[in-house]
Amino acid sequence: MLELKSSLKSKEFNVKMKLMNKHNTTRIQQDKTCCFFTYYKWFLWLCLSLYFFTSYLITNDPQDTISKSNVVSHSFSTQNNLGLLKNLKVFIYELPSKYNKDWLLNERCKTHLFASEVAIHTALLKSNVRTFDPSEADFFFVPVYVSCNFSTVNGFPAIGHARALITSAVELVSTEYPFWNRSRGSNHVFVASHDFGACFHTLEDNAVKDGIPRILKNSIVLQTFGVEYKHPCQEVQNVVIPPYVSPEKIWRTLEKAPVNGRRDIWAFFRGKMEVHPKNVSGRFYSKRVRTEIWRKFNGDRRFYLQRHRFTGYQMEIARSVFCLCPLGWAPWSPRLVESVALGCVPVIIADGIRLPFSSAVKWAEISVTVAEKDVGKLDKILERVAATNLTLIQRNLWDPKTRRALLFNSEIQEGDATWQVLLSLSQKLGRSMVSAE
Q1: CA dist., res. 120 & res. 295, Å (int)
Q2: Strand pairing of 90-92 and 345-349?
Q3: Rounded Cα distance, 407 and 246, in Å
C-alpha cells in the first residue's frame, strides 16, 4: 500500500511538473512574442520617421518652401496683431476729395510706380494704428496725392502742381485743426514718391535749385529718393520707402514662374537706353550709364537687353539670374523691388544710393553693387559672382520676409512695406513703441 501511494504521489508530482513546465514555457514564449512585437513597433516607427524625414529633405528644398510661403504671406493679415506697433497711434486727416480721392478717377493713380502715396493711405485707413482721437495720436498723416497728374504728351506724372497742392493742404490743416501749430508740423507725415522726393521735382538740377518747401521743413517725408551723401532733397526728417509694385501682379507672376524655376537669361535689362546719351532736354540721362551698357553688351549673348516696353516684363525677370538696376534720372528704380520679389539678383548701379528698410532687407547679402565708373566691366564682375557666392546670394534672396518688406498691401501685413514705414516712424519717437508683453 505504501508503495502504491508513493507511486501515485510520484505520478501526481510528475504531472504537476509537466503542467508547470508547459505553463512556464508558454509564458516565456508569450513574453518573447510580446517583447518582439514591442521592439518591432519601435523599429517600424523609426523606419517610417526616417523615411518621411528624408522624403521631406528631398522634395522640399528651400526654394520650394519659399514659393509655398508666398501664398501664406499673401493671405495672412495682422490687423488684430501688429506686434511691435500695438501702441502706435496715427490720426489721418479727412481732407476734401480734391487732395486725394478725385485723382483716383484715373486707375493708373493707384497702380503706377509712384502709387505708394495711395497704397500707404489706403492701408492706414484700415489699420488698427489709426485713431479717431487726435489727442492720443503720435503722428498725423496728411493724405495728398501729388503724382497722379499724368501728362497728356508723354503719359508720365507731371508734378508741377505739387508744391501748391501741398501748401494748400497745410493751410487747411493748420487753420481747421490745432495740431499743426502745436508742433509746427514736426509730427505730421507726407508722402513724396517721385524722383527727388521732398523737393517735388523730377529733374535733379531743378530740384536742388528749388529745395524743400519751407512749409515742410519740420515735417516727416516718406520718399523714394535717398542717398548716402549730403543732398538738399533729403534735408528733412525722412524715411526712404520702396517704389510701388503691385503685389497682385507679383503673385500672378510667381504662380506661373516661381522663384525656384528655370532661369535661362543670365543678365537682363529692359527699359530706356538712349543710343546717344544727351537727349532733347540737353541732359545726360542715367549719367550715360545705360548708354554704356547698351554699347558694350548689346552684342553679348549673355546679356538680354531690350529698349522697348513689354507686357510680359515681369516674366522675363523671373527667368533671369541677374537683373540690372541702373539709375535713371534719380538713383532709385522699381526694378529693385521687382528683382527681389521675383528672385532675380539685383545689380545696383547707382553711386551712393540709400536703399529702403535696411534693417529688414539685408541689401549687401541679396544684391550686387557695381560702381557707375565700372559699368564697362560688368561682364567680368558678374562672372566672378557667379563663380563664387551666387548660390548664397540667391538663398538669401529667397527669404519671403525680404520680399514682403518691399511690397505695399491694401491691408497692413506684419513685416510688409507699410508696416516697415510705421516701424521707422515709431523709432523717431522719444519713447519706445514696443508693447509690454
Answers
A1: 40
A2: unpaired
A3: 8
Q: How far apart are the C-alpha atoms of 410 and 262, rounded to whole Å?
A: 31
Q: Kindly tell me if the per-residue pLDDT of 22 is higher than 70.
A: no
Q: In this predicted model, what pLDDT tens digit does every residue of 76-89 receive, in sequence order?
A: 344 444 566 878 99
| Amino acid found at 357 | F
**Residue 263 near residue 319, CB atoms below 8 Å:** yes
pLDDT, residue 429, reads 86
Higher pLDDT, 148 or 41: 148
- Total-model pTM: 0.80
Give the long-range contacts of residues 227-236, CB within 8 A, separation 24 or more: 227/331, 227/352, 227/353, 227/354, 228/352, 228/353, 228/354, 229/352, 232/199, 232/207, 232/208, 233/196, 233/197, 233/198, 233/199, 233/207, 233/208, 234/197, 234/198, 234/354, 235/211, 236/198, 236/212
The C-alpha atoms of residue 406 and residue 89 are separated, in whole angstroms, by 23
Helix/strand number for the chain, H first, E second: 15, 10
The vertex-188 CA angle with 217 and 170, nearest 5°, equals 70
The phi, psi pair for 213, rounded to 5°, reads -55, 135
Q: Distance between CA 322 and CA 347 in Å, rounded? A: 7
Structural domain 247-407, CATH architecture: 3-Layer(aba) Sandwich (3.40)
pLDDT tens-digit map of 145-203: 999 988 777 777 888 899 999 999 999 999 999 999 999 999 999 999 989 999 999 88
What's the rounded Cα separation, in Å, for the pair 322 and 293? 14
Q: Give dist(CA 203, CA 193) in Å, integer.
A: 14
Residue 346, SS3 per DSSP: strand
**Sequence-ordered list of residues with C-beta below 8 angstroms from that of 292, at least 6 positions apart, any chain:** 375, 376
Residues in a beta bridge with 270: 306
The Cα diameter of the chain in Å comes to: 141
Domain boundaries, the chain: 78-244+419-426, 247-407
